[in-house]
Write a structure and sequence with these properties.
It is a single chain. The protein is an alpha/beta fold. The longest helix has 18 residues, at 164-181. The chain has helices at 55-67, 84-96, 110-118, 136-150, 164-181, 195-206, 258-272, 278-290, 318-324, and strands spanning 26-28, 39-44, 76-80, 99-104, 122-125, 154-155, 186-190, 212-218, 252-256, 299-304. The radius of gyration is 19 Å and the shape is globular. Helix 6 (195-206) links the parallel strand 7 (186-190) and strand 8. The chain has two domains: 11-52 and 167-320, Rossmann fold; 55-155, Rossmann fold, CATH 3.40.50.1100.
Length: 341
């Protein structure tokens, strides 16, 4: 189109790289929980082109808004993100030819900032937490509102509240899992905006699948608790209870620490050769913790939200772990049985 105008996507249109979003592998984990009579599967969302589950809502939101005329080529997209949603939006905005401003804070990993820059996103840094709550999330959201008020024709996807977030997981993530497995007994999901867990849980309820849904949250997160603590692992937990959170769709909550996330990631690599992100380590730790209570023969699905390359300087850095988490090397071994011993 003339003047670099983005295409208006339709359901039938080839979306280029964005057409590869979804249909991620569902891999059986054979070793890390070898001591239990369970069929444990990992939904590897890191295989999305932008590297995380957030590619799904990012693409769905922009595709819908372009197709309905809610945004056009002159619109400036502005969103708050600690990493994954920002990268998903940056990729989609680059494909559609949209200007994108991503509001980040000091916890955003250097690799994520580099990826945002490569995709052409403009990075707006929040350097201090919100004075009232002490949380960076509220500070980022306040900055988004400031930018919306000063930049004409700007648009906030609002991943924390839009129904398109859980809807994308309802229509794709959970549909893919059920299509492949037929049914399941337990679903473990890390929580942040709660888009993934709400969409997946709604699908299970609407389709009469009586699976237990376990929300995995960070200790110190304010999604399900009012006990605030320091958190160093991005992508899990939040400084607010997101509007998308629906307690009626959750059967159990498991809180995990930064150490749990690090140890779970290290065990995933050691026993399954799966290099996943920080929240995935928390999910795996939660599965291990609940496993003794799960009936033998059950099918368990753990959604692993992103891949691990963007955590090489944090979760997988011994120096970073010692500085931010402590010496937890004795927890990396886990209970798996190595086939090479």
């Amino acid at each position: 189109m003339a003047d670099g105008a983005p295409r208006r996507p339709s359901d039938e249109e080839d979306l280029g790289i964005l057409a590869t979003v979804g249909h991620t592998p569902l891999v059986r984990l054979n070793r890390i929980l070898s001591g239990f009579d369970l069929a444990v599967y990992a939904k590897l969302e890191g295989f999305n082109p932008g590297g995380s589950a957030k590619d799904r809502p990012a693409t769905a939101i922009l595709k819908y808004c372009l197709s309905t005329g809610k945004i056009d080529r002159r619109t400036v997209i502005i969103e708050s993100s600690s990493g994954n949603m920002g990268i998903g939006l940056a990729q989609a905005c680059r494909y559609f030819g949209l200007r994108f401003i991503c509001v980040v804070d000091p916890k955003t990993a250097p690799q994520n900032l580099k990826m945002l820059e490569v995709y052409g996103a403009e990075i707006n840094h929040v350097t201090e937490p919100d004075p009232a709550s002490g949380e960076f999330l509220q500070a980022r959201l306040a900055r988004v509102q400031e930018l919306l008020g000063t930049i004409p024709g700007s648009f906030w996807p609002n991943q924390y509240q839009t129904a398109l977030n859980p809807q994308s997981h309802y229509q794709t993530t959970m549909h893919e899992i059920v299509t492949e497995l037929g049914s399941l007994d337990y679903l473990f999901v890390a929580t942040s905006t709660c888009g993934t867990i709400t969409g997946c849980s709604s699908y299970l309820r609407d389709h009469g699948i009586a699976a237990k849904v376990v929300a995995v949250d960070a200790r110190g997160s304010l999604i399900f608790s009012d006990k605030k603590e320091k958190r160093s692992v991005p992508g899990i937990g939040a400084g607010i209870r997101p509007p998308l959170c629906n307690l009626d769709l959750i059967d159990r909550i498991e809180w995990v620490s930064d150490a749990d996330c690090v140890a779970g990631c290290r065990r995933l690599v050691r026993w399954e050769a799966v290099l996943a992100g920080g929240s995935s380590g928390g999910v795996i730790t939660a599965v291990e913790r609940v496993a003794p209570e799960i009936p033998a023969g059950s099918t368990v699905v753990a959604i692993l939200a992103d891949r691990g390359e963007r955590y090489l300087e944090t979760i997988y850095s011994n120096t970073w772990v010692r500085e931010h988490v402590g010496d937890i090397a004795d927890r990396w071994e886990g209970a798996g049985v190595s086939p090479w011993r």
